[in-house]
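Hey, does this match?
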Amino acid sequence: MNKLSSTFVGGLIAIMILFNGTLANVLGNYQSTVIVHFIGLIGIMVVLLVRKSKIKIHKSVPLYAYSAGVIGVLPILFNNISFTVLGVSITLALGLLGQSVTSIVVDHYGLFNLTVVKFNKRKLVGLTIIIIGIVIMTIY
């Protein structure tokens, strides 16, 4: 189920890049980023109200974890900037490469108090395939 939902999220990200980039072409990168996040805020507030959930701040959660919202603005902004030049597929492929490399480093060193998952050669094969795919998409 997790693999299926992760694949579904990947599809949503491709559509999100398209929609956000289209909005950015009309309104500009910064204004569209604000609008996207504001509408997202309203959407999740409706979900919280319907589910009668409360927002709780837990002291046990590390402070850096709460900064994810600030970090979350940057991919939207940079995708909007890249979309007009690169299109959806290369923007998404390069994002996948960045996510893969970063996650391998985080896993290998156990950053952010995560369990260490050492790098192995199979992951290098996957990264190589992604890079070859990006090169092919860029050339053709």
